[in-house]
Structures are given as C-alpha cells and as structure tokens.
TrEMBL record:
Lineage: Eukaryota, Viridiplantae, Streptophyta, Embryophyta, Tracheophyta
Protein name: Peptide methionine sulfoxide reductase A5
Catalysed reactions, semicolon-separated: [thioredoxin]-disulfide + L-methionine + H2O = L-methionine (S)-S-oxide + [thioredoxin]-dithiol; L-methionyl-[protein] + [thioredoxin]-disulfide + H2O = L-methionyl-(S)-S-oxide-[protein] + [thioredoxin]-dithiol
Role, per record: Catalyzes the reduction of methionine sulfoxide (MetSO) to methionine in proteins. Plays a protective role against oxidative stress by restoring activity to proteins that have been inactivated by methionine oxidation. MSRA family specifically reduces the MetSO S-enantiomer.
Organism field: Nyssa sinensis
Occurrences of domain Peptide methionine sulphoxide reductase MsrA (ranges): 50-190
Record-linked PANTHER family: MITOCHONDRIAL PEPTIDE METHIONINE SULFOXIDE REDUCTASE, PEPTIDE METHIONINE SULFOXIDE REDUCTASE A5
Transmembrane regions listed in the UniProt entry: 6-24
Length: 250
C-alpha cells in the first residue's frame, strides 16, 4: 500500500473515533427525570395578587390559607418591623407573617379578610393562644388605599361583633416582606413523610413554588374547610387503591 493511501485511511479512522467520542459524551449528558414536576394549571396572562397577614405562629397561618381555592402559593416570613434581614431566632420587632399569592378570579381580598378574622383571636394582646410575644401580634398588611379601606371596614365590623372586647389588630401598609428560612416553609407538610412521598419528594425550591404543596400543607394540619378536606381524602384514597405513587393534582 502506498504511503498516501495509508494517510487517507488513518485520517478517516481518526475522524470516525472522534465522532464516536462526541456521541458518547452527549449520551452521557442526558439526564432522565426521577420525579414528575408539577405543571402549572394556569397559562393565561391573568396577574396574581399578593396579600400578607400576621395572625400568630406562621406555621399555622400558612396552613390556614394554603388550602383555599384560588391560593397559588404561600410563603412564611417576617414583616412589620424595622430590622433588616431578620431570622427566626433574631427577628427584632417583626411579626411572623404569611404571604399569599392568589388568583383574584377565584378569591378576593375581602374573602381573605374573612378567613383572617375567623382563624385567630384578634382580641388577644401580645400573642396567640399559647404563643406569647410581640412576634405573634395580629396585623393586616395592605397594598394601597382600597385594601386599607376594606381592612378598616372589616375591623370595624369585627369590633362591633366583639362588643366590649378591644380588637388589637393593626392595619399597616406593607413594607418589606422577608421570607423565612426553608425549614419553616410548608412546615406541617414536612412533618408528614407519606404526603411528601405522594407528590414525588420534590426538592425544596419546587416545594416552595408548588400549589399542591400549599394545599397539602393545610390538609396535613387538618385546617382545610371540611369539603376540601374530604375531597383530598378521596383523592389520596383513590391513588392508594390504584397503586399509582404520584399525586399529580388536587
């Protein structure tokens, strides 16, 4: 064989090897999902609204609101104070609060206020139930004049219903809301390994964004309205009966 033919053959062989390596490298880079991410239900351009309330321990507050129809996600955190970057063990003059992202087509601020008043004792001073301290005070945070008006009207009505007892709830314009540490988000749900497994053991970031996690957090705390609690019971029982391990929607 002549030298020129040998060079051509060797060149072709080298090119072939390079192609194989590149294809193998690409194949190695493919990652198959080990869980099913939640698909957003609403793909429209309808903007969500945000409300923030303080009504005692934020673990319970988050669970109270998360179960309602129209709630997209909930986040616990700190608001109402002056300290920058508060933390759970050092929150300064902030109150434990819950931020609620909601679809105004399904639930409105007035309805959220009704849940707020129903879900805690607005007459208790310096705490809620066994939780005593300034961080557990009752506050309605408002975004703008209309929300302030609705909050004031609802407080006046609550005061009328309370007769001689003084409603201690404050009404404030919302300043900075500081999300709490990850271990406090969806706290009641995280105490239930079975429910976490049922939705695919989502990583923390996805869990905090998940509408289903917000609803199951309320379910785990048994704070959903009775109708919703029964609906979730039925859905979970159906999943168990069929043996399908992933709960896709509620």
């Amino acid at each position: 064989m002549r030298l020129s033919e040998t060079v051509v053959i060797l060149s072709r062989f080298v090119c072939f090897v390079i192609v194989i390596i590149l294809l193998a490298d690409r194949a190695i880079g493919i990652r198959f999902p080990d869980r099913i991410s939640e698909v957003p239900k609403d793909s429209s351009n309808q903007p969500l609204k945000t409300a923030v309330f303080a009504l005692g321990s934020f673990w319970r507050s988050e669970a109270v609101f998360g179960c309602l129809d129209g709630i997209v996600r909930t986040t616990v955190g700190y608001a109402g104070g002056s300290k920058t970057n508060p933390e759970y063990r050092s929150l300064g003059d902030h109150a434990e609060s819950v931020q609620i992202e909601y679809d105004p087509r399904l639930i409105n601020f007035r309805q959220l206020l009704e849940v707020f008043w129903f879900s805690h004792d607005s007459r208790q001073v310096f705490g809620q139930g066994p939780d005593v301290g300034n961080q557990y005070r009752s506050i309605i945070f408002c975004n703008g004049t209309e929300e302030s008006r609705l909050a004031a009207v609802s407080k006046e009505r609550e005061q009328t219903n309370s007769k001689s007892s003084i409603v201690t709830t404050q009404i404030q314009q919302l300043g900075t809301f500081y999300p709490a540490e990850p271990e406090h988000q969806n706290f009641e749900l995280k105490r239930n390994p079975f429910l976490l497994q049922l939705i695919g053991n989502l990583p923390e970031e996805e869990l905090e964004r998940s509408s289903m996690a917000a609803k199951l957090n309320g379910y785990a705390a048994e704070l959903c309205p009775s109708k919703i609690q029964r609906q979730i019971d039925a859905k979970i029982n159906e999943i168990i009966r069929k043996g399908w391990p992933i709960l896709r929607e509620l």
